[in-house]
Write a structure and sequence with these properties.
heterodimer, A: alpha+beta, Ribosomal Protein L30, Chain: A, Beta-lactamase, 2 domains, seven-stranded mixed beta sheet, five-stranded antiparallel beta sheet, 24 helices, about 20% strand, elongated, B: about 375 residues, mainly alpha, three-stranded antiparallel beta sheet
């Protein structure tokens, strides 16, 4: 037994040895673990602490509320109205489809929105709220809110949405907002982080786009603690952003509204400017469109209809459209000639009905006989200006045009403002690589050919003609209740006697029997206007056609008819407003544009639907009927939607 | 040496058995498990019913099992060891056939009232049967090839079945744990060198097989290894576990963020925060002090276990005690090394702390066996 125990003790010793060896290995591994702990938790602690904070804290942007836009009397133009929305959080409901059916039984949801929401629901994490419908009526919203217990996972919330209270009235002025496009984001360097917020809206056209930086405001910040899935656990800090700057326009919504109503279904535009301040009181293009359609997302069918309409409702014709100013340009030619000294105030030229210049026959609309400058403007004789224009030369004419604001880009915060054209020799060389011809000057002297002007420029011209001042148009009256000061108007560098002669002639146009717009005169002496009609030819009349008799506008297709123009300022002796009206392919200036200009002028001066007493007696019946047609188109300014807010 | 050779007079009987228990280990187990309860309470965000309470109930059941097992003489366990081994292997086969699928693996047997994870049970059973085997085997034959092959097969069979589930962590635990018992039993060095070098060649083969038709591991296992080698490669994908675990650990600093203040676990950045990765929460909330304390507690368990094993004159009891100690060591060492980014994530729970019924019950069963060996040890004359 002794040997056995010896062997036993040998193996026991071996076991102890091995156990200690194993224990040693285990101990060294434990030591390694301890060292690793020390390394991670002491040496690297700071690094990992930062990483943990990064994990935990998320910074979110709080979109600011967009600056409001008012007209000069404080009537709302663009507002932020509560946007009643309902949405769904998938994880809070057992059966999404069942809830959607229940919801549809309760309120109407557009199928388009529903498809979009379904798609989003299947894509996003289950806790992410998905919007089902926006801009709900209060009743629908209340219905959903009241039935909330039965609608698992459905939530209601109120956001802000842009609303254009006056709908079509100021579409071309205020423009509209829309979601940021990827294209736009790529274009700008260092974009405002706000632009990355889904559904964030920026100005797309008009004042909304041009004043974007002021209207947008700056983002607020919200630091939140989030979990690994990005769900907000709690708010740590909140810094409110700055709301956008409230902006007051010089626009008088009432005049604007009347002007648009008066233009009716014509493809036309009208601009009304305050002669002393240059305030743009109205700048209307007809037909118009509802900018609200674009905010909520316009259907492609509606958009295509707007885009393809030959009357171009999306175009801001008043600032963007350029037209041959035609006879409304004659004052410029006259002043250029008087200033250059090539024409004396009482010089007479005989109009035989046409003038031959370098083998081309230039026609007048009738054989006027002997004409003084005053007669030529009053009766709109072309031959007089053909002959005077040749003497002055195009460069001096264009120079005068620019002094009156033609061929100059007026700096208004509107989209696509046209510069127009006050042509010169170099300009033609550069643009067409052709030499200037005498015939070009002849055409330009009556505002045809290369001369182009927008209705805004024509209104500025009328204001400058009426006041002798370099009236500068402006559209922004104040920002954040601080008036935008504008330099006082400078006196135009034109001989006052010459200007007075032209003014007298313009008075004659609308107030003497020979005048082209005599029948469109204003009877009431304190509102009498001075103006000038224009009929811009848009096609070439061949010699053959002239022999057979010129085809009248009514017999031509719409696109080939003449543009009708009228510019004026009133009251004639102390100009307050200047108006320009252009009716595309409307026909004669005196028959189509002048009556519109007259009515808008009267409205702007009196502030209400013109009293029939201001019109010549035999027209009153006709005008009364016309007014009855316009009244339904006017906005009811007592409705709370557009009512001027009473000051608190 | 059969149980008949025991001097029954020197082995404690009746109530004396309770006094003869290795109480330091029992206290340590209670302390460690309590830390676990607190941490489960913390990661649940203060909802005791969620994890902490079921864990306490299991611990309670486990402690009862421990005491019952400890009161039964160790020779009884030795005599039924082979039966339990056969039973364990059969259960593993049943998993292969009828197991419940969960988390991409087939690990559980559903008995309705209880979900058993036979691979957990196997960890203890294997140690038990190997200890019995070497107790039975004449010691001079220990290193003879035929007698070395038998325990190798006994290890390889369950290891292979577990690997099929697939559960790499348990497979490793079985192989290393079984190997530890063989090492303690005195198997010749040469075998270990051969096995380890062939293991390395197998590892090489594993990598070589990747993407081929005879691919040895599942894709996710390869991914885990890749991620281990370079966690930053895919920080939001498979590297997420390790990266976030390290952040949690590191952000703890010296003393941690305080109880229930850990942002990583509370905000769900940590996956499996209540199971395999619970150590990260301890480290985050109690810092270096907390994690080193837990490590020390584990070390103390290992120390008392080794001490008990060394002082036990009974070969079976000694091998069993040291084997269970080694298994326990492997549990916490692999788990900690894994969450600290020292070894790949293999899915080994932190013993007594991680949420999970099978592991808790099996560990306490193991310590019950160890206590039984301790109580019924031959007393010095």
């Amino acid at each position: 037994m002794k040997s056995t125990s010896k062997i036993n003790s040998k193996y026991t010793k071996q076991l102890s040895r091995r156990a200690l060896l194993l224990g040693g290995m285990q101990l060294s591994m434990i030591a390694a673990l301890g060292l690793r702990m020390r390394f991670l938790q002491i040496n690297e602690a700071e690094k990992y602490h930062l990483l943990a904070e990064e994990n935990r804290i998320n910074v979110r942007l709080l979109p600011p509320s967009r600056g409001l836009i008012f007209d000069r009397d404080g009537r709302p133009i663009a507002e932020n109205l509560p946007n009643y929305r309902i949405g769904l959080i998938r994880e809070d409901t057992d059966d999404v489809e069942d809830i959607l059916i229940k919801l549809q039984n309760l309120i109407y949801i557009r199928p388009k929105d529903l498809t979009k929401a379904r798609k989003e629901l299947s894509r996003v994490s289950s806790f992410v709220p998905v919007t089902l419908a926006e801009n709900l009526s209060w009743t629908d919203f209340a219905k959903v809110a009241a039935n909330a217990p039965a609608l698992q996972g459905v939530f209601t919330d109120v956001g802000l949405t842009r609303i254009y209270a006056q709908n079509e009235n100021l579409a071309h002025v205020v423009g509209y907002v829309g979601p940021v496009s990827d294209h736009y984001l790529k274009q700008i360097e260092d974009p405002d982080p706000l632009l990355q917020i889904p559904r964030f809206q920026v100005g797309k056209t008009g004042v909304e786009a041009q004043m974007e930086s002021k209207l947008r405001g700056s983002a607020g910040l919200q630091r939140v603690e989030v979990n690994s899935a990005g769900r907000i656990i709690r708010e740590l800090e909140r810094i409110e952003g700055d709301p956008g700057t409230p902006t007051q326009l010089t626009i008088d919504s009432k005049i604007q509204n009347y002007a648009l109503a008066r233009l009716g279904n014509l493809s036309a535009s009208a601009v009304v400017i305050d002669c002393s301040s240059g305030d743009v009181l109205a700048v209307g293009s007809s037909p118009s469109f509802d900018p609200n359609l674009f905010v909520t997302g316009i259907s492609s069918k509606k958009y295509n209809a707007l885009r393809d309409d030959v009357f171009g409702p999306l175009r801001a014709k008043a600032v963007q459209g350029t037209y041959a100013p035609a006879s409304t340009f004659k004052m410029i030619t006259a002043l250029a000639a008087l200033e250059a000294g090539v024409l004396k105030p009482d010089d007479e030229i005989i109009c035989p009905g046409h003038l031959e210049v370098s083998n081309n026959k230039f026609h007048c609309w009738k054989a006027h006989g002997p004409m003084s400058l005053e007669d030529a403007i009053i009766q709109s004789c072309d031959v007089f200006f053909y002959s005077v224009g040749q003497k002055v030369g195009i460069d001096r004419i264009s120079n005068m045009a620019r002094r009156f604001g033609l061929g100059v880009k007026h700096d208004l915060p509107l989209s696509a403002i046209s510069r127009g054209v006050a042509p010169t020799r170099e300009w033609k060389k550069k643009s067409f690589e052709k030499n200037w011809l005498l015939g070009d000057t002849v055409n330009a002297s009556i505002g045809q050919g290369f001369v182009l002007a927008s209705p805004l420029q024509l209104a500025v011209m009328a204001a400058r003609l009426g006041t002798g001042q370099a009236v500068q148009p402006r559209l922004i009256q104040n920002m954040n209740n601080v008036n935008i000061s504008q330099e006082a108007n400078k006196k135009l560098d034109v001989n006052p006697d010459h200007l007075a002669l032209v003014q007298k002639a313009m008075f004659g146009v609308t107030n003497t029997k020979a005048g082209t717009a005599y029948s469109r005169r204003i009877e009431t002496s304190r509102f009498r206007m001075s103006g000038k009609t224009g009929t811009a030819q848009v096609r070439r009349i061949t010699a053959a056609e002239r022999e057979q008799g010129v085809i009248s506008n009514e017999d031509l297709p719409w696109q080939q008819r003449d543009h009708a123009l009228f510019v004026n300022y009133a009251p004639a002796d102390n100009p307050k407003v200047a108006v320009a009206v252009v009716v595309e392919h409307g026909g004669g200036g005196s028959s189509v544009a002048a009556p519109i200009g007259r009515d808008i002028t009267l409205f702007a001066l009196t502030g209400k639907l013109p009293n029939l007493n201001h019109y010549p007696k035999k027209l009153r019946r006709e005008i009364q009927l016309e007014q009855e047609n316009i009244v339904p188109k006017l906005i009811d300014w007592t409705s709370p939607k557009v009512k001027k807010p009473t000051k608190a | 040496m059969s149980y008949l050779e025991y001097n029954l007079k020197t082995v404690p009987t009746g109530f004396k058995k309770v006094l003869a228990l290795n109480w330091p280990i029992i206290f340590l187990l209670i302390i460690i498990s309590s830390i676990g309860f607190a941490m489960l309470y913390s990661v649940s965000g203060g909802v005791i019913e969620r994890w902490a309470q079921p864990q306490m109930q299991r611990f309670f059941v486990g402690m009862i099992i421990l005491f019952i097992v400890a009161m039964v003489p160790s020779w009884f366990w030795r005599n039924i060891s082979f039966i339990t081994y056969i039973l364990g292997v059969s259960l593993l086969f049943s998993v292969e056939l009828f197991g419940v699928k969960g988390m991409g693996a087939q690990r559980w047997l559903d008995f309705g009232f209880f979900r058993l994870q036979p691979s957990e049970l196997m960890k203890i059973t294997l140690v038990l049967v190997l200890a019995a085997y070497y107790d039975w085997l004449p010691q001079k034959r220990t290193s003879q090839p035929i007698w070395v092959t038998i325990p190798l097969i006994m290890i390889a069979l369950p290891a292979f079945l577990v690997l099929r589930q697939p559960d790499l962590g348990t497979t490793l635990l079985l192989i290393i744990g079984g190997g530890a018992v063989m090492f303690l039993a005195g198997v010749h060095w040469a075998y270990f060198i051969t096995i380890i070098s062939s293991g390395l060649s197998l590892g090489f083969a594993v990598f070589q097989s990747r993407g081929s038709t005879w691919q040895l591991l599942k894709d996710y296992q390869y991914n885990r290894i890749d991620t281990f080698l370079d966690p930053s490669r895919d920080p939001l994908g498979t590297g997420y576990h390790i990266t976030q675990a390290k952040i949690a650990l590191g952000s703890g600093g010296w003393t941690g963020r305080g109880f229930m203040q850990g942002t990583q676990s509370r905000l769900n950045f940590l996956p499996e925060k209540h199971t395999d990765f619970i150590f990260t929460t301890i480290s985050e909330e109690f810092g270096f002090v907390g994690s080193i304390t837990l490590l020390t507690l584990y070390l103390a368990v290992l120390f008392f276990c080794t001490l008990s094993g060394l002082s036990n004159k009974d070969r079976f009891a000694s091998l069993l005690t040291l084997g269970i100690g080694s298994t326990f060591f492997l549990f916490f060492a692999i788990n900690m090394a894994m969450v600290m980014g020292l070894v790949p994530v293999v899915g080994v729970p932190l013993p007594l702390v991680s949420y999970g019924g099978s592991a808790m019950l099996v560990l306490l069963l193991g310590f019950g066996l160890m206590q039984s060996a301790h109580v019924h040890r031959p007393q010095s004359k």
